[in-house]
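We were asked to recover a plausible sequence for a given structure. The inputs and outputs are reproduced exactly as logged, with field labels preserved.

PROBLEM: sequence recovery
POSITIONS: 237
GIVEN STRUCTURE:
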């Protein structure tokens, strides 16, 4: 039984504190749905969960171990699907999937690609190059990547964008099957995806009001001379 949790997370993007005091916990078979207004920090949280950026404070743990301790292990167990489909325009759909599988060191790659193409109903597009795909077909190809190779954690940022109603239903079914195999899925969406009883994490509940953010900036500025004094002392020693 796997356990994925975050405690007291604060996220800084650029110079802006996006959210603070955010905690969550998920176990094998769980689904966590992120929601919140535009800019609330759903993508940012997914990037923290993927280990692509570090939280400003707080930590993320997999089976009790901080994911920052072994990023390679965390990347190996995680499939992260961001906003960008990252489909190479000059490669065919099959070659895109093959490249991805090779990068992840997937064994028995060709049958795995066939299964993913079938699951996403894009087998007929296998020989089409990326540049000729519609946005929905690109999204399905990106989702097919998630099915290639073993993973314990799916992090899906707006997976339904560009998908028609039928594809959304198929995605919900793939999520159900993944959960049935003990996977944990965290996803953001602005539309209703038919996923059974997800835990809902509303990022609006963790927004840091501008006034608090400004106070924090003042604190940081006040701290700066102290830090400078400390580092010049350190240099003198
Ligand atoms: N690369 C970046 N550099 C600086 N600030 C960023 C960056 N990316 C996002 N932000 C800021 O971080 C905040 C959170 O953005 P994020 O994309 O995580 O929100 P979101 O909830 O996913 O939004 P949406 O629903 O519009 O996709 C926003 O205020 C945004 O302007």
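RECOVERED SEQUENCE:
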């Amino acid at each position: 039984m796997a356990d994925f949790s975050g405690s007291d997370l604060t996220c800084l993007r650029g110079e802006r504190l996006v959210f603070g005091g955010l905690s969550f916990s998920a176990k094998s078979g769980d689904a966590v749905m992120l929601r919140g207004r535009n800019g609330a920090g759903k993508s940012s949280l997914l990037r923290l969960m993927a280990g692509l950026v570090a939280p400003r404070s707080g930590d993320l743990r997999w089976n009790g171990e901080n994911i920052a301790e072994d990023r390679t292990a965390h990347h190996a167990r995680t499939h992260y699907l961001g906003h960008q489909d990252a489909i190479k325009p000059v490669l065919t759909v099959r070659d895109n999937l093959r490249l991805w599988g090779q990068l992840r060191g997937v064994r028995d790659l060709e049958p795995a690609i066939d299964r993913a193409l079938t699951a996403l109903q894009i087998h007929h597009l296998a020989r089409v190059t990326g540049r000729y795909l519609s946005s929905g077909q690109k999204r399905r190809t990106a989702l097919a990547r998630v099915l290639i190779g073993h993973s314990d954690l799916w992090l899906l940022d707006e997976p339904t964008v560009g998908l028609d109603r039928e594809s959304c239903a198929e995605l919900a079914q793939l999520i159900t099957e993944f959960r049935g195999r003990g996977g944990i899925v965290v996803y953001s969406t602005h539309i209703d995806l038919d996923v059974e009883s997800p835990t809902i994490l509303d990022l609006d509940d963790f927004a840091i009001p501008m006034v608090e953010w400004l106070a924090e900036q003042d604190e940081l500025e006040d701290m700066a001379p102290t830090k400078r004094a400390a580092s010049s002392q350190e240099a003198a020693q």
